[in-house]
Write a structure and sequence with these properties.
47% helix
Length: 212
């Protein structure tokens, strides 16, 4: 397995969406190089935490499990992601804005790599514990593997050595603690979830995860 990507690692976008994000970074770098624009670029691993819209993996699994709906996992579920709690990411961005060197890039990544399959099973275990009276226990019985999406990268992983050594940043807590805290937040804020889940959102879920 290759090492985590550093700030100097080449860009290799495998989907039009990823290519559009990479092109934005290149434009920012070019404006700094050509015109001296005081830019700062940060790269982050996958975020999770409170208030995340339920199109993303973690809140989607929580919402569907509570409703007894299928828990869709792309492909074989072995795609690896590096996760960071949203508060840690925000602290990293604030630190870069305060102390970062113009023209530099900083990776802000979490310290946990896990497969999508593992994270969904962990969420199910937490829900089994926190909602033992749920008619859907064990929630893992709701897992359903669906067709992989085009251009789905096998692994995302960032090397955050630079921001740790140069700016003194480090994530707080650990992935397991923050994931449990996140699941608990959604359980305590079911009204918020209901309010954000509009008809357009349900149509998006159907388009992305249903078998064609």
């Amino acid at each position: 397995m290759p090492p985590p990507a550093g700030e100097k690692s080449p860009y290799e976008p495998n989907s039009p969406y990823a290519a559009s994000k990479a092109s934005a970074d290149h434009l920012v770098r070019a404006y700094h190089h050509t015109y001296g624009l005081p830019t700062l670029t940060t790269n982050s691993s996958n975020n999770f935490g409170p208030y995340q819209f339920p199109e993303k993996l973690i809140p989607l699994m929580i919402v569907h499990a509570l409703q007894g709906k299928p828990l869709p996992i792309y492909g074989d579920g072995l795609n690896i992601r590096n996760w960071i709690y949203v508060e840690d990411h925000c602290h990293g961005i604030a630190l870069v804005l305060e102390k970062g060197i113009p023209g530099e890039t900083y990776n802000i990544g979490g310290q946990s790599e896990t497969t999508n399959k593992e994270i969904v099973h962990t969420i199910c275990q937490i829900l089994d514990e926190l909602r033992p009276d749920s008619p859907h226990v064990p929630h893992s019985s709701l897992i359903k593997y669906v067709k992989d999406r085009p251009g789905h990268d096998r692994r995302y992983s960032l090397d955050s050595t630079k921001i740790k050594q140069q700016l003194g940043w480090s994530p707080k807590g650990n992935f397991a603690e923050n994931l449990r805290k996140t699941v608990s937040w959604y359980l305590d804020n079911l009204v918020w979830m209901d309010n954000v889940m509009s008809g357009e959102y349900r149509d998006w879920i159907t388009t992305q995860y249903s078998d064609k």
